[in-house]
Amino acid sequence: MDWAGLLGWVSIGLGDLDLIKFLFFQFGAVDFRSDPNSLSPVSVFPIRGLDWIRLCIAMNYIIGAFKPACHISFTFFDGKSRKQVPSKKENGQTLMVPLFQSQENIVGKISIEPVSGKKVEHNGIKVELLGQIEMYFDKGNFYDFTSLVRELDVPGELYERKTYPFEFSTVEMPYETYNGVNVRLRYVLKVTINRGYAGSIVEDQDFVVRNYTPPPSINNSIKMEVGIEDCLHIEFEYNKSKYHLKDVIIGKIYFLLVRIKLKNMDLEIRRRESTGSGANTHVETETLAKFELMDGAPVRGESIPIRLFLSPYELTPTYQNINNKFSVKYYLNLVLVDEEDRRYFKQQEITMFRLAETS
Amino acid sequence: MMISNGIEDEEKWLAEGIAGIQHNAFYLHRALDSNNLREALKYSALLLSELRTSRLSPHKYYELYMRAFDELRRLEMFFKDENRHGCSVVDLYELVQHAGNILPRLYLLCTVGSVYIKSKEAPAKDVLKDLVEMCRGVQHPVRGLFLRSYLAQISRDELPDIASEYEGEGDTFMDAVEFVLQNFAEMNKLWVRMQHQGPLREREKLDKERNELRDLVGKNLHVLSQIEGVDLEIYRDTVLPRVLEQVVNCKDELAQYYLMDCIIQVFPDEYHLQTLETLLGACPQLQSAVDIKTVLSRLMERLSNYAASSPEVLPEFLQVEAFTKLSNAIGKVIEAQVDMPIVGAITLYVSLLTFTLHVHPDRLDYVDQVLGACVKKLSGKAKLEDSRVTKQVVALLSAPLDKYNDIVTALTLSNYPRVMDHLDAATNKVMAMVIIQSIMKNNTCVSTSDKVEVLFELIKGLIKDIEGTSTDELDEEDFKEEQNSVARLMHMLYNDDPEEMLKIINTVWKHIMAGGPKRLPFTVPPLVFSALKLVRRLQVQDGDVAGEEVPATPKKIFQLLNQIIEALSVVPSPELALRLYLQCAEAANDCDLEPVAYEFFTQAFVLYEEEVADSKAQVTAIHLIIGTLQRMNVFGIENRDTLTHKATGYSAKLLKKPDQCRAVYACSHLFWVDDQDGTKDGERVLLCLKRSLRIANAAQQMVNVTRGSSGPVTLFVEILNKYLYFFEKGSPQITGAAIQGLIELIKTEMQSDSTTSNPASDAFFASTLRYIRFQKQKGGAMGEKYDPIKL
């Protein structure tokens, strides 16, 4: 097949299309074996959903359970023009939050208004910009890999609404915001009104960081011949090894030998998130996409096309050893199912990256 | 029990499928009404998921498919209107590909693809190429076939054909051809693969199901034939080789048979004619179980009709040597398919023969070649017992007769009789009758002894008993009809040249001699008359062609005739032989051959004496003899005397008195020939008449004695009429007085009490008297002559 020709006319403008998502597939997670050169039937493991809700409740919410003494609100300098993206909170709600990238200036105002004219005594007010990593097995314990502080006010009393400008210039934010199964990476602006024994008043404002990378200069295709001796030989090809998040996977599967009765063939996108290090390494694998490539039993010599649009799926770039805490990798898993529901599969890692959006 | 359950289950599954479609169609309609693209896509995909079932037979699946198809039409309308969903067709084309399941995805892709082409935002060929490639994902035969047939269906109006709005800008009809060919190839593969689905014992059911789907595959060929751009060149160089490649390589008998037939039916005849070699070249490569004979027969039938359609196309046939190619192909096919039953081979030859008769009516050698090939195939086989085979052979043999309306043409075919030899006796006879009927119908004249030889060889089933067939079963009626036909046939054998004619007669004689006593009475007379006809002709020419060397002289013919008639003695059929002798005698008389004529008379008398015993037959015979003898003028006085003496003698010796009487008065004519130089012996005439009167008297008395009443006066009136005849002719011995006396005698007899009155004889007498009166009144010479007679 003429790959280039096909690519030429399927690379279409994406626009707001990603808002329209209809996902027909069911999620299913399967275990995999790491032997890279063989396909082998493997049993299906129980499925764990993506939408697992964590029970972790942060300290400041406990404080927040008391009646707050004042209202704190954030306004960004370019808040109206800045892009907002959805962000999932711990309680499952999705909020629209501003989007930044590394080296940007984060500038804005914080206004504090005491409730119903009560005066608020304090030992000083500060705003922090924190980059935090939170591990599932270490709930509530944040590891701050970035921490910047601006003092807003010296100790004193607040009687009425007061507005403080703040600015963090060319902030180094090397890691992207990430919400995984066992790990969370977030950026937050945190205002603290220090009140000593009365308990400090703290307010958070989350924001999302996404970093863009240029297209890789070398991007080889993935091509491999695999099989079970005298039973099934296939050759598959994916046009690239590195895909951006809205990319299209083009490829084909060529059947060299078919002696088993196949029923269908799927291409799965799997995310492998590993956290911790050494003996404490914890690995979680999710199947993000299950895309049927073939229906029915092919015969020798058949070649089945692959064209998988990545835009409908919630993918992130590949993260390699983020602050020695975690890694996120992506795999393409080619699964063949025979008439007795035995599964034969071959997994290949692909690298995901975020391409600057042109629009 | 199992089966009925299976059917019930299938009904149930179909109902479930339909319910699923209807359910989702409801939401789909709602989404379409509210222009909700997202919902529309979701529910159409769910709806199409019903087509993923593997539990339905093709027949039921089709029902399900049609329902989904209707919904897709609606969806397509929606897709067409960008205002309704606000999404460009390019985006739509991507969007539908997000569907996780392949079957709904591809149905949707095809649907959008059709809209995409119509929008002209991308070249049609690119979209088509993409669609046909992507459809490879469905490898399940039934689902794949239906999907691809959907693709074929929706793309039909959008092929970039010549003069279509989708042509141009790098889109040519060749892209359309390429697209259809590819879709065809893939569909054929899927179709062929169907046979491997399921256990062997269900093979029959599978074949039936496959047959139900064949038109889906064949449709592609039809589409190809509709593409304007496919001219002869493209067809020859691209379409046909590619299609045939598929046909041959699929190695599946069902597909091969159907597709070959499809090719033949779908594309124009002139294309077939120009690509015969390629098309025929594929035939021997087909599986041995393929019914090639039907395929080829259809091809030849079409070509025959094409040739018949207009005379202008005939040169094309010659130019491409259609016959040779077909003939070779058939030879190869028969060679390749060892198991082909003989009826198959013969059917092929019949088709080829029909073809060549239509296309090359002037090429008899072709016809003979076909027959020769047939003989070769039949040789070494026993007589054909299979009725289907004989039927085909009869068809084979009848075809040239029907075409040429002229058996003579068929007679030049050396292989024709050799084919006939392979028929069983009954069929052989039928065929022989067909041949004779053809000759009769067309009034064909067979004019040389060689042809006659061949012809009689052909119809020998009728001419003689064939070994090994029992004659008991023969139906008398049929036999008579057959032999009558042979007799009629003999009159069609004719040549103006006496020498050749004699040869013909000799040939025929040689054949019918073997016919045996049952046939000779039928076959001898026509032959005799045919020979006599020749004699008459010679007699006319006699003056011109004199000389000893002339082979066909009346003498020789008469010798032959003698032999021929003699043959009847074995039957025996003396009456017939006697008549024939007399005929010959008369002919000899006309040729002035006294000894020959005398000889024939002798033979006739001998027969009369020795063989004709029945009194009635004797009466007839003697009258024939008298009649013939009367006309003879060749005899000298001595011979004549001998013969007339014999005749009168036998007349007087007949058994019954009235017969005697009549024979004797008939003899009177022997002495009075009303010619210029005929015998006119009034004396002996009178003697005869007087003698007959005596006999009549005696007869009257005998009746009187035995019955007590006199017989009718008929005999007297008859004698009176003879008297009047000779009186008028002027015989001096017959006087008015004698007549007068006879009249008186009759009147007395009539008035006698003892005489029974007979209206017939009374009327006869009355009209005789009236005649005399008329003659008297007429006056003139005759009136004067009659004058003395008083009534």
Structure description:
- The complex is a heterodimer of chains A (359) and B (791).
- Chain A has helices spanning 3-10, 59-64, and strands spanning 70-76, 84-88, 94-100, 106-114, 120-122, 125-135, 142-153, 156-158, 162-168, 178-179, 183-193, 201-209, 222-228, 232-238, 242-244, 248-258, 262-275, 282-295, 303-309, 319-322, 326-338, 343-353.
- Chain A is mostly beta strands.
- In chain A, the strands form 5 sheets. In chain A, strands 2, 3, 6, 7, 10, 11 and 12 form a 7-stranded mixed sheet that branches.
- The longest helix of chain A is centred in the first third of the chain and has 8 residues, at 3-10.
- The model of chain A is unreliable at 1-65 (pLDDT under 50).
- Chain B is 73% helix and 0% strand.
- Chain B is built from 39 helices and no strands.
- With 791 residues, chain B is mostly helical.
- The termini of chain B are far apart.
- Chain B has helices at 2-33, 37-49, 58-80, 82-85, 89-95, 102-119, 124-134, 141-155, 173-193, 203-226, 232-249, 253-266, 269-274, 276-282, 292-309, 314-319, 322-336, 342-359, 364-378, 387-404, 407-411, 416-420, 425-442, 449-458, 460-463, 476-490, 498-513, 520-541, 554-567, 574-590, 594-610, 615-631, 637-652, 657-667, 682-707, 714-729, 736-751, 759-778, 780-786.
- Chains A and B meet through helix 1, strand 18 and strand 19 of A and helix 2, helix 5, helix 6, helix 7 and helix 8 of B.
- Chain B: Its main location: cytoplasm.
- Chain B: It is found in: Cytoplasm; Endosome membrane; Golgi apparatus, trans-Golgi network membrane; Prevacuolar compartment membrane.
- Chain B: It comes from Forsythia ovata.
- Chain B: Belongs to the VPS35 family.
- Chain B: InterPro entries: ARM-type_fold, Vps35, Vps35_C.
- Chain A: It is a peripheral membrane protein.
